[in-house]
Amino acid sequence: MNILKIIEEYGFKSASNYYLRCKFILFNNYMKNIIEVLNWRYATKKFDAEKKISAKELGEILEVLRLSPSSYGLQPWKFIIVNNLDIREKIRIAAYGQSQITEASQIIVFTNKKNIDAQLVDDYMKFISKEKNVDINNLQGFKDMMNGIISSKTSEELKIWATYQLYLSAGNLLTSCAVMGIDSCPMEGFDKSKVDEILGLNELGLESKIIIALGYRSDEDKSAVSKKIRFPKEDVVLEIN
Q: Does residue 170 sit in the same domain as residue 78?
């Protein structure tokens, strides 16, 4: 909402109290709108291939991914934006012909780093030291804790842990796109080994887990008007007092 419109609408005569009032209005509008947005969002089955996400919007989407939370802040991921249409055709075949792969404005392949190890932690510590301008020796306790946890897990356990982190970023993206009025479809139904091969992920030390297609729903997508099916709150929330 434009701040000048708020001032005009609510008749503020000075700037002395409008800031807190505006924050209150915006927050209440947001909380009201977020439920509407989540009801509007659905897994888009058919995209309008003619409608494209703007460069500005894509930049915001990538920033949403960059700012996503992860355990310890370790960020064991890389997000692959696939623009090449020939490659997307190949991925569509590996995704059992799902049309979203080629019809959507963008697809993002969510990948995990294969090597969750001391080197990853060491690189992270160096980055923290640089970004926060702190002596890396002051981070030794944090480093030792992470290395201890990593070394206590099997490679399979680490792979599962890394996948959990990836789903945090995926959920963050889906909600953020809905707020932006951008449709999405998260997809796990694809041959991961084939997608890894198509994108050369093995050589990069990465493995694909999720594909999210982004764009704008087609008028022909009947799923857009289908009733959203969610269990009632009392069936999914347990409150312990």
A: yes
